[in-house]
Design a protein that fits this description.
The protein has helices spanning about 25-30, 50-60, 85-100; strands spanning about 15, 35-40, 65-70, 110-114. The protein is of the alpha/beta class and about 110 residues long. The chain has one domain. The longest helix has 17 residues, at about 85-100. The chain is globular, with a radius of gyration of 13 Å. Mean pLDDT is about 75; it is low at about 110-114.
C-alpha cells in the first residue's frame, strides 16, 4: 500500500484512494515527510472511517494533506469513462501538493486503492 512509501525520500507525494490503515500506526504517521492526498467515497465507503482517521493523524504531523470525498460508495466512479471525477483530481492533486511543498518537478506518485 502507499502508506509503505511514507518514509521513502524518493517519493514527493502519495495518496490513498478508498483506503486507510486497519489500525492507527503512529510510527508510520511520524515517518510521513511528503504531501498526501486522500480520496474517499463518502460515508458509504467501507474505508471512510479509517481514511478520515489517517487524515487527522497525518495532518497532526504537519505535512500538507488534502482530503476529497464524494458520496459514491467504495470504488466510486473509477470505472466511469475516463475514470470519473476522482481521476481528474488524483494526479494533479498530488503534483500540486508536492510543488507547493517545494518539489521543483513532480515525481511519480504512489497510490493505494482497495
Amino acid at each position: 500500500m502507499a502508506e509503505g512509501t511514507a518514509g521513502d525520500f524518493r517519493i514527493s507525494s502519495w495518496g490513498l484512494n478508498s483506503s486507510g490503515l486497519f489500525a492507527p500506526d503512529q510510527a508510520l504517521y511520524n515517518s510521513v515527510h511528503t504531501p498526501v492526498l486522500i480520496v474517499l467515497r463518502g460515508s458509504g465507503d467501507i474505508s471512510y472511517r479509517s481514511g478520515g482517521r489517517d487524515y487527522t493523524n497525518i495532518g497532526a504531523v504537519g505535512v500538507p494533506i488534502m482530503l476529497f470525498s464524494k458520496a459514491l460508495g467504495h470504488g466510486g466512479d473509477l470505472f466511469s469513462p475516463n475514470g470519473g471525477d476522482f481521476t481528474k483530481i488524483e494526479r494533479p492533486g498530488t503534483n500540486i501538493l508536492a510543488m507547493r511543498a517545494g518539489a521543483r518537478t513532480p515525481s511519480p506518485c504512489i497510490w493505494a486503492s482497495v
